[in-house]
Design goal:
The structure holds 2 protein chains of 2 kinds. By secondary structure, chain A is mostly helical. Chain A contains 7 helices and no strands. Chain B is about 95% helix and about 0% strand. The chains are: A mainly alpha, B mainly alpha.
């Protein structure tokens, strides 16, 4: 287990370094936007990674509602939390890219930007619910919230397919075209971010398991003290 | 501001976000381990 973790950490560090080199140096410079377009190699893979994590959260929540399996509940919590981290990267890097290209930090009313912000707020609310609520029904309520929250993911993804927005059209699928060398760098960066997400989720999962054990032991300790 | 500054800002912000999250996890893990050791005694 520990060996597997060390191997994953090493592979992630190597892959992230290589992906950074590919994004900043090896990838061709885009003709219209210039070097600032290289934000794309962090912005898009972070969004895709967040979508994968929210999908895991959605499936785990359904599994928890059906089987009441605590491992599914932990996986739902972990995937939502790490997903929010990646979604935060998207929300932060988007405006930094928009400012030099569009001349504005944010396009109010733009469907892609608005649905992404709503998605981020939904999962922030989910995490607040999990942290603040202490009742035994919390995992069930959280699972229901997660299932409804996940409905926003396809809305975010397909918004640029069906609506005219300030945000660019899809670069892969949906009629978009991307230079094969850029697509290659994009996929390397996505692989690196997926490994990072896996690593962070692993750490967070182990932490949650340990935290629940401590909570149980503390509850037992309190019971023993009150019965004396 | 030069467009390269925006590029660096985006990359630095990404690593700051991931680094901050990792720091939070490490601190929480240290706290849980301390509590585990206290309960073992």
């Amino acid at each position: 287990m520990r060996r597997g973790f060390t191997l994953l950490a090493l592979a992630t560090a190597l892959l992230l370094s290589f992906a950074l080199y590919e994004a900043l140096i090896a990838a061709p410079t885009e003709q219209t936007m210039g070097d600032v377009q290289r934000i794309f190699y962090y912005h898009v893979p972070s969004a895709w990674t967040a979508f994968v994590l929210f999908l895991i959260n959605f499936v785990s929540s359904i599994v928890y509602l059906i089987r009441r399996n605590p491992k599914a509940d932990i996986l739902a919590l972990v995937s939502a939390e790490v997903g929010v981290v990646f979604c935060t990267v998207v929300i932060v890097t988007g405006p930094i890219w928009a400012r030099p290209v569009w001349g504005i930090w944010w396009a109010p009313g733009d469907i892609r930007l608005t649905t992404t912000l709503v998605l981020w707020l939904i999962y922030i609310s989910y995490l607040i619910l999990r942290r603040m609520s202490t009742g035994g029904r919390t995992p069930v309520i959280a699972a229901v919230v997660a299932i409804f929250g996940a409905l926003d993911v396809p809305l975010v993804y397909f918004s640029i397919w069906f609506f005219r927005t300030q945000h660019p059209s899809p670069v892969i699928g949906g009629g978009g075209s991307l230079d094969p060398r850029m697509a290659h760098v994009l996929l390397i960066n996505w692989a690196a971010f997926l490994c990072l997400a896996w690593l962070l989720s692993w750490v967070r999962y182990e932490l949650e398991v340990a935290k629940r054990r401590v909570d149980e032991a503390q509850a037992m300790e309190s019971l023993q003290e009150s019965s004396r | 501001m030069n467009s390269m500054h925006y590029l660096y800002a985006a990359y630095i912000a990404t690593w700051l976000i991931h680094g901050s999250y990792l720091t939070i996890l490490v601190r929480k893990y240290a706290r849980v381990r301390r509590e585990m050791e206290r309960l073992r005694k």
